[in-house]
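Input (structure):
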């Protein structure tokens, strides 16, 4: 594979006031971030650009399914918010369809008892919430709505082709200093300042952070709000599995999928047939037992950069590329088809136990973060626990469950399968997001996960990196890091 054959002579383009298009680009990682980046690279750079996508494992990355006795279930990223507009548009444009995610009744267990239990009657729920927590639920809902409202501005910026060179600048463009402040402070600090009570934080907010991010209210306020929005009504998933979005994006981008592990990236000077030297990146990768290398004008890294997850070496850069040591939270997803031992959580037998999900408080004696009924990826349904039927339950835990632990939770079970992840960043605000621009034409997408890790966040990062690469290649500095975009675009319809 070479980079030089396809682009028109640069002298010709320069005289027409145009930069030559890059001949070869590459994306490392075929998760939702990498495949959306490939899709937008094609849209921006046009049909002649070569796009190679490297993937060491399966297309989809953290979007994956398990098979339980012939049926597929999501094992990684599972629910999508109704206002996640990139995911929504991908599904529509790529000929996929959406299914509603199960929304059964939720309870919160503290290791001894259910401290909160939803009712199927809306009015009873309202009364219970007000009785236990006053109007804090309503205030929380308004807080999240305000953050989400501002978040939606990104779609307008991106539809006008604006790009950001850092995650901090992107966040600032959404809502100014207050928005950036959310990222720099813990959720706990922000919500305590806003007057939320310890009881509400311990019994409602912490359990939501545990199910979604395996962490407590020590995470940053922005990811806290994203996590709370994951309790909104109308969550959905892709029929057949969320990972289908990645394979369809790859197809639509007409990229070449290279099944290989990228080991290193190095900047090299190449002399073209015209005699002009030019800077390119050499990407060294392994397929099976063989080592190969190829040269690229632009490289987009779409995987968390740390030794445990991608282990890519950046060689001979001057100044050197910063080292990434960000810690990702270990998390285990276990699917169990069996009869729940409902008496673990309440005195009620299973035929009187109507909860579809049990969340947990931050009690060190608990060995699970959450347990919830799940539906196969093909089905649009709301499974209800019934005494006579073994259902499939999904459990999130920090460590793999032992057989004894499973037998505490289930009277009996037919099948159990587990998947271990390094799931999301371990959030420790205040912290700095890793740079998006690692070098001249070398970009990094996954820094956005330090603001919040979610499918839509990676899709936003993929679009942003493609726009940034395009504008920097063409010298369109006026399309990068523009201030007051919201005010400026408000008048444009
Ligand atoms: C258990 C779990 C539940 C989740 N639930 C939700 C949810 O309900 N909703 C939601 O929005 N988000 C959820 N998320 C988060 C969401 O799944 C991720 O934020 C998102 O999928 C990240 O996508 P990505 O493309 O950025 O990274 P990844 O999906 O990690 O993709 C990176 C890819 O790069 C590949 N790669 C790594 N190193 C190399 C190398 N050296 N060479 C070649 N290839 C390499 C990897 O194999 C991988 O496929 C969940 C995550 C987990 C783990
Ligand atoms: C990015 C924005 C604005 C919203 C995303 C909201 C959302 C879908 C949050 C969930 C994030 C997440 C990491 C969930 C993990 S667990 C999901 C689910 N509860 C499950 O049981 O699988």
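Output (sequence):
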């Amino acid at each position: 594979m070479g980079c030089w054959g396809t682009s028109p002579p640069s002298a010709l383009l320069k005289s027409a006031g145009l930069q030559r298009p890059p001949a070869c680009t590459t994306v490392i990682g075929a998760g939702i971030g990498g495949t959306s980046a490939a899709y937008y690279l094609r849209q921006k750079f046009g049909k002649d650009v070569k796009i190679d996508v490297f993937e060491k494992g399966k297309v989809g990355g953290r979007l994956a399914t398990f098979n339980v006795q012939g049926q597929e279930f999501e094992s990684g990223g599972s629910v999508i918010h109704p206002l996640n507009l990139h995911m929504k548009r991908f599904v529509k444009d790529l000929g996929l369809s959406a299914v509603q995610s199960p929304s059964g009744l939720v309870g919160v267990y503290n290791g001894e008892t259910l401290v909160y239990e939803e009712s199927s009657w809306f009015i009873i729920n309202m009364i219970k919430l007000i009785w236990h927590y006053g109007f804090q639920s309503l205030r929380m809902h308004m807080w999240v709505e305000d953050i989400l409202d501002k978040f939606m501005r990104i779609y307008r910026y991106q539809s006008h082709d604006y790009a950001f060179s850092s995650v901090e600048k992107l966040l600032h463009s959404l809502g100014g200093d207050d928005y950036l402040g959310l990222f720099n402070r813990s959720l706990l600090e922000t919500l305590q300042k806003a007057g939320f009570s310890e009881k509400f934080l311990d019994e409602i907010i912490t359990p939501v952070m545990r199910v979604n991010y395996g962490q407590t209210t020590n995470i940053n306020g922005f990811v806290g709000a994203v996590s709370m929005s994951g309790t909104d009504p109308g969550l959905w998933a892709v029929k057949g599995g969320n990972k289908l979005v990645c394979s369809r994006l790859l197809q639509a981008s007409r990229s070449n999928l290279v099944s290989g592990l990228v080991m290193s990236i190095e900047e090299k000077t190449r002399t073209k047939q015209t005699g002009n030297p030019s800077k390119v990146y050499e990407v060294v990768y392994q397929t099976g037992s063989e080592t190969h290398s190829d040269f690229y004008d632009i490289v987009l890294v779409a995987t968390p950069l740390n030794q445990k997850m991608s282990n890519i070496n950046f060689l001979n850069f001057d100044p050197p590329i910063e080292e990434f040591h960000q810690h990702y939270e270990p998390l285990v997803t276990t699917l169990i088809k069996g009869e729940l031992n409902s008496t673990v959580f309440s005195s009620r037998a299973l035929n009187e136990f109507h909860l579809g999900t049990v969340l947990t408080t931050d009690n060190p004696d608990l060995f699970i973060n959450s347990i919830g009924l799940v539906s196969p990826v093909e089905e649009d349904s709301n499974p209800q626990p019934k005494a006579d039927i073994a259902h499939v339950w999904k459990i999130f835990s920090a460590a793999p469950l032992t057989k004894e632990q499973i037998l505490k939770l289930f009277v009996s079970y037919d099948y159990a399968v587990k998947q271990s992840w390094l799931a999301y960043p371990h959030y420790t605000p205040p912290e700095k997001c890793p740079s998006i621009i690692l070098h001249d034409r070398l970009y990094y997408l996954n820094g956005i996960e330090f603001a919040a890790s979610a499918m839509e966040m990676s899709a936003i990062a993929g679009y942003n990196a493609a726009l940034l690469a395009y504008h920097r290649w063409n010298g369109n500095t006026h399309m990068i890091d523009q201030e007051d975009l919201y005010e400026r675009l408000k008048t444009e319809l």
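Notes: Residues 28-34, 54-57, 61-63, 76-79, 261-262, 302-303, 309-310, 312, 331, 333, 421, 423, 446, 453-456, 458 surround flavin-adenine dinucleotide (ligand 1) (CB under 6 Å). The two ends are 44 Å apart (CA to CA).
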